[in-house]
Amino acid sequence: MSSQPAHPTLLIPGPIEFDDAVLESMGHYSESHVAAGFVATFGETLTMLRKLFQTTNPASQPFVINGSGTLGWDLVAVNLLEPGEDALVLSTGYFGDGFADCLRAYGANVTKLDGPIGGRPQVADVEKALSQKKYKVLTVTHVDTSTGVLSDIKSIAAAVKKVSPETLVVVDGVCSVACEELAFDDWGLDAVVTAGQKAIGCPAGQSISMFSGRAIQAVQNRKTEPATYFASMRRWLPIMQNYEAKKPSYFATPSPQLVHALNTALKQILAKPLTERFNKHIEVSDRVKKTVTDMGLKIVATKPEDQSHAMTAIYLPEGVAIPDVLPKLLSKGIIFAGGIHKEIGTKYIRFGHMGVTAVDPRRNDVEKALEALKGVLAECGYKA
Amino acid sequence: MSSQPAHPTLLIPGPIEFDDAVLESMGHYSESHVAAGFVATFGETLTMLRKLFQTTNPASQPFVINGSGTLGWDLVAVNLLEPGEDALVLSTGYFGDGFADCLRAYGANVTKLDGPIGGRPQVADVEKALSQKKYKVLTVTHVDTSTGVLSDIKSIAAAVKKVSPETLVVVDGVCSVACEELAFDDWGLDAVVTAGQKAIGCPAGQSISMFSGRAIQAVQNRKTEPATYFASMRRWLPIMQNYEAKKPSYFATPSPQLVHALNTALKQILAKPLTERFNKHIEVSDRVKKTVTDMGLKIVATKPEDQSHAMTAIYLPEGVAIPDVLPKLLSKGIIFAGGIHKEIGTKYIRFGHMGVTAVDPRRNDVEKALEALKGVLAECGYKA
After folding, report:
1. Which end of chain A, N or C, is more open, meaning fewer C-beta atoms within 10 Å of its C-beta?
2. Is B31 helix (H, G, I), strand (E, B) or coil?
3. Cβ(A140)–Cβ(A170) under 8 Å?
C-alpha cells in the first residue's frame, strides 16, 4: 500500500492527503532552475495547467510562482487594478472578505456584496451593482473554505457579460480548481487564482493561476507601474512564456521540487477526463451531506445548490464543543478543521473530501471519517 | 551511500546539492498547518534561525515565508521604507542592482554606490554618502552571486553606527548565510534576508529572514500602511511569534514540507560550531581559488579580501566560450553556471562550493569539478 508512514488522515479543506508519487517527487535531486531538464518539466507543467483550467485560447497565460493561495490575491490586486480603481467583491465568508482586504491594501476602491451566512449573493443583486457603477474587476470565491459555500461562477460571469462586459471576472479557485467544474474559456473568465494543496493534491508553496489575454492586456496597458517586485506580472510574464517555450529564464528562483510535485499531480489528474473527476467529487460530497443530515446535523451552506463538493462545513449539535470533538476525532485517526467564520467560527467543523480522498478507490477516508464522527458525537452524548 | 539516483553534480551558486535527509523531509506526509505537530516543527525552526543568524536578542524576529530570496527584497522595500524615503544601495553586481530596482518599484528614492567590476564600494565612500544625506536604510549584498564579490559587512555596519546610527543596516545574505561569518547582534544588523537553496542546503521555495527589534519598530511606527498583503510584515509578525510560541496561527498557508526540510537542514548545520562550518568553506574556497589561479585563470573578484567563500566566478581564457565549456563539463557530470553580470556575462563561469559540497567529507565534489574543468579547458585547446 502507501509508502508513507502511518499517520492520522488529514481531512481538512487543505492541505489534503497526498498521493505517494507526488510526495516522492518532492524529494527530487537538485537541479538548476535554468537547466534543460527542469525547464522542460516546468514548461510541461504550465501547458498541463491550460488543460486543468479548460482553456485552449493561446492568449491565456498560466503562472506558477512560489507563494501560497493568498499570493494570487496580490497578483490580482496589484496588477489588474491601479490605485483608486473599483472592484466589486462577492463574499461568501472569510476568504471573500480576505480578498477584499487584499484589494484595499493596494488602494482599490472596494464594494463588497455579502451573502447571508451559509448563502451567496443573488445574481440579481450582482447585476444591480454592476449597473450602478463601472467596476474594473469583479471577484468571486468559487468555494469559500470558511463556509463550504459554492458560488455559481457560470451565472455570475454571464451576468457580467450582459451588464458590464468590460469588467474582468476574477475567480478565487483555491478550493475549487480540480474538483468543481470551472470552464475558463466557455464561461469567459479573466483570472482564476489557486494553490496546490487543495484538490490539485500537491504540497503547499505555490501560487497557481491562469489569466486571460484580456487580463494580460489590462496589465500591459496600465498607466502606472505596479508597486511590487516579486508579485509583478510584467516581470513574471516573459519568464512563464520562456519556460513554456522550453527556454531558460530567470527572475526569481522557482522551487524545482514543488514544480516536480505539481507536474506529477497534474499528470495523475489529466490521465482521466476532468468530468469524471468532478462527478466523483459530487458523488462523495452527496454521500457526506446525506450522512450528516441523516445524523440530524445541519450544514453551514444552507441550500443544496450552494454546497461545495470539496468540503462540508457542519454545525455541531447544541452543547457539543469543537475543543471536545477535534481531539476525540484525532484519537480515531481523523483530522477535521474547526470553523473560521468570524460570526459562527466556534459552532461548526470542516471536513475536506478532495483529491485522493475522493478519487482513489484504494482509500476509505470518507467512510472512516463519517464513522469516527458518529462515534465521537455519541461519546459527547449526542443522539441522532 | 546516497539514496538519491545518480545525477550530475550541481555546483552552481544555488540551488546546491542536498543532503539525503533534507530531501527525505520534503516527502513528509501531509499535516495541517495549524496542528500541534507541525506548529512545534515550525516553531523550533524559527528558534534555530536565531542561532544561525547569531542573535540572542529576544527583540530579533525571524520570518519564514513561502517565496524565494527575491521576496526578501520586497519585505524590506515595502515594510521598512515608506514611499519617497531614501535608501543607499551598495552594489557589487547583478543582485545589488536588483535590490535597487525592487526598492524603486515600491517608491523608494535610491542612491546606488557601485563597486568596480569584481570589486566593492570603499568604506570611505560609504561614509561620505552617509554624511551627505540621511538614509532610512542602507542595503548591501554580502555575496553577490553574479560576481562572487564578498562585502565587508562588519566594517560597513560600523561605518553606519559612526556616521548615521539611525540608518537601518540591511544585508542581502542569500549567498552568505550559513557559509560566511555573519554576526547579527555583534555587528548591529537590522535585517538579513536569505533563501534556503544556497548554503543552508534546503530546496528553494522560502524567503528566510531576520529583523532587529529596531527594524520591527520602524515597521510598527510607519505613518502609512504598507501597500502589500502577502509581503506585509505587520500581518506576518503575530503569525511568526505564535508559531515560535507553539500556538497555531493563520495568515497564509506555509509549506509544511519545506519547513520540515529547513528544520532538518538547520539541525545538521547547528550540530557543529558555526565557526567550524565557516572555516571549512574558507578552506575549500582557498583550494578552488589557488587551483584555478595556478591554471592561469583569473577570478572575477579581483582582490583576495573581496572574494566570497561560497563560490568562485572564473574568467574563461581568451577564445574559450561558455557554450563550449558548460556542455563539456556536463558530459563529465559537473554543472557550473554561466555569467550573469550585464557587462561581462559572456566571459566567465560560476562555480558554487557551498553546503554539503564543502562540508560533507564523504563527497568529492570540488576535486571532481576542478579535474573536469582542467580536462574541458584542455579539450578546448587551452594550455595553462
Report:
1. N
2. coil
3. yes
Which of residues 293 through 322 in chain A touch B, CB cutoff 8 A? none
Model pLDDT for residues A301-333, shown as the tens digit of each residue: 999 999 999 999 999 999 999 999 999 999 999
> Which positions ≥6 away from B276 have C-beta within 8 Å?
none
Compute the nearest-CA separation of B10 from chain A (Å): 7
Q: Which residues of chain A have a CB within 8 Å of the CB of B257?
A: 26, 203-205
pLDDT of residue A281: 98
CA-based nearest residue to A79, from A228, A198, A203: A228
The beta-carbon neighbor of A74 closest among B229, B250, B340 is B229
User: Rounded to 5 degrees, what are φ and ψ at A172?
Assistant: -80, 105
Each residue's pLDDT tens digit, A140-159: 999 999 999 999 999 999 99
pLDDT per residue of chain B (384 residues) written in tens, 0 to 9: 688 999 999 999 999 999 999 999 999 999 999 999 999 999 999 999 999 999 999 999 999 999 999 999 999 999 999 999 999 999 999 999 999 999 999 999 999 999 999 999 999 999 999 999 999 999 999 999 999 999 999 999 999 999 999 999 999 999 999 999 999 999 999 999 999 999 999 999 999 999 999 999 999 999 999 999 999 999 999 999 999 999 999 999 999 999 999 999 999 999 999 999 999 999 999 999 999 999 999 999 999 999 999 999 999 999 999 999 999 999 999 999 999 998 999 999 999 999 999 999 899 999 999 999 999 999 999 987
A49 has a pLDDT exceeding 90: yes
Q: What is the C-alpha separation between B328 and B379, in angstroms, rounded?
A: 9
Beta bridge mates, A192: A171, A210
If DSSP codes are grouped into helix, strand and coil, which group holds residue B110?
strand
β-pairing verdict for B143-144 and B86-91: unpaired
Q: What is the pLDDT of residue A1?
A: 60
A94 closest CA partner among A43, A149, A170, A26: A149
**Cα Dmax for chain A:** 63
Question: Residue A61 in contact with residue A237, Cβ under 8 Å?
Answer: yes
Please tell me the distance from the alpha carbon of residue B203 to that of residue B205, in angstroms, as a whole number.
Answer: 7
Query: Which of A11, A26, A209 should one mutate to test binding to chain B, selecting the residue with the greatest count of B CBs within 10 A?
Result: A26
Taking alpha carbons only, the member of A333, A56, A312, A68 closest to residue A194 is A68
Distance (Å, rounded) from C-alpha A110 to C-alpha B322?
A: 52
- Residue B347 gets which letter from DSSP? G
To the nearest whole Å, the CA of A139 is away from the closest chain B CA by 16
Helix or strand (DSSP H, E) at B313: strand B311-315
Query: How many A×B Cβ pairs under 8 Å?
Result: 199
The CA distance from B304 to B313, in Å, is: 13
Q: Is the pTM of this model over 0.95?
A: yes
Q: Which three cell numbers stand for residue B372?
A: 573536469
Longest Cα–Cα distance of chain B, Å, equals 63
Rounded CA-CA distance B63/B49 in Å is: 9
A174-216: per-residue pLDDT in tens?
Answer: 999 999 999 999 999 999 999 999 999 999 999 999 999 999 9
